[in-house]
Design brief:
The chain is mainly alpha-helical. The protein has twelve helices and no strands.
Length: 229
Amino acid sequence: MHGPQTENKSRYKRMISPLGFVILFLLLFVFGILFVLGFIGDSNHKQTNQILADSQTSEAFENGTSELESFSNLMNSFEISELNEIINKKDYSNANRVNLNGVTPLMVAAYFGKEQVLVSFLARGADENARDRYGHTPLMYAVCSPKSIFLGPNLAATLVSVGARIDEQDFSEYTALMYACIIGNTPAAKLLLENGANPHLSGRGKVTAFSLATSHSNFAILELLKSYF
């Protein structure tokens, strides 16, 4: 015989069973929504990061920053020591010695503004159109030399006078003129233009001498370029 308490318990069990199911369903539904929102949020976060990364890469690409850094990276590498030794010893028999990065003593002399050394190596048959691993030529090194601000276009002029190809493009399709536009080497840009440099050539990413001078706010070079358009 069942008393009132037993009947109440039975009724309670019948009520809690559907209620528990509803609660469980709601919890699963909420967790499902949170999971989806989290996935979307994570996806959007990754997409945003990728856009920012692409933007930074594009900016460095468009203004030539990454290309310009390759010069200093090669000049500061350990492999440059043997070439410095050749220069210091004036070992002209190794005028066309090439290190693991394709750099020659002439390139080192051009970059560090060693004008007399550069002249001496040229006199001993150094190749004025040699290329390093990035396709850079001695003329490009001369234009990008940190000493060019003091020496003017002398190094570049010497190389041009012995047959350095002015419109030679490296593996990023940049020319010596483009590098002059990046660093603001107005005397070198003037020298190159006066000797027939083509200001209309485009590099990788469709950059030009004009666009590079613009992105680096080198207004003196911009005025110079305008007279060739």
